[in-house]
Amino acid sequence: MTDAENENKAARHRKRMQRKKAVVDAAIERADQEKGLLLVHTGNGKGKSSSAFGMVARALGHGMRVGVAQFIKGRSDTGEEAFFRRQDNVTWHVLGEGFTWDTQNLERDTETARQGWAVVQTMLRDPTINLIVLDELTYPLKYRWLDINQVLEDLQNRPPMQHVVVTGRAAPEALCDAADTVSEMRDIKHAFRAGITAQKGIDL
Ligand code: ATP
Ligand code: MG
Fold it and tell me: Over the stretch 9-28, which tens digit does the pLDDT of each residue have?
């Protein structure tokens, strides 16, 4: 390319970037509302809970108060639980017992989930809690241990500036409809299927 052609290319690039900046600036200008958000992380890929706990770290960095409720108690040795339980501004609730094929008792699962939801309701009425993570809430909904309408109503009536993140596979459509931000983690590949066990710092 000659010097003139190079100069021309650089000028076109500058112009394109200027136009892009104008569009982005206008979008930022328009997004001027504040509100407590409902977020849903669903799908079969990895990253639903770890992304939610990334937001917990963000919130704590701003001095916010956080409540975490875990509905399906998979394991009690996760790094996030050990770390966040040590933080003054975090309340950590374990509300589930395990998967339904572990307990094999519908009545008991339902009762456990209902008692768990009562704990969440207390947080959903407390405006001093700025962020709530409802980890694996989709399962008690899917198995109908909890009534989706009750859950939606309680979420709807929470303090206006309170953020809530729900994680879990197969999020019900009604929950996604009610949410402000919905992300689906897509499973392209997972080390587990290559025979690699859950790794500390990555999977737990
Ligand atoms: P993470 O907590 O790592 O963000 P997740 O919340 O998206 O994962 P869950 O369905 O809650 O996924 O699964 C929890 C555990 O299973 C984690 O150890 C995670 O690494 C692992 N896992 C997540 N997705 C898959 C998958 N597609 N195949 C196998 N294991 C998975
Ligand atoms: Mg998870």
Answer: 999 999 999 998 898 888 88
Q: Is the pTM of this model over 0.85?
A: yes
Q: Which residues contact 27 (CB under 8 A, 6 or more apart)?
A: none
What is the best residue among 39, 46, 73, 75 to mutate for testing ligand 1's pocket, by most ligand atoms within 8 Å of CB?
Answer: 46
187 lines ligand 1 (CB under 6 A): yes
Helices and strands, counts by H and E, the chain: 8, 6
Q: Is the CB of 114 under 6 A from ligand 1?
A: no
pLDDT tens string 88-124? 999 999 997 765 555 667 888 899 899 999 999 999 9
- Ligand nearest the Cα atom of residue 203: 1
**150-163 per-residue burial string, b: 16 or more CB within 10 A, e: under 16:** ebbebbeebeeebb
Ligand 2 centre and the CA of 151: distance in Å? 19
Q: Tokens 């008991």 map to which residue?
A: 108
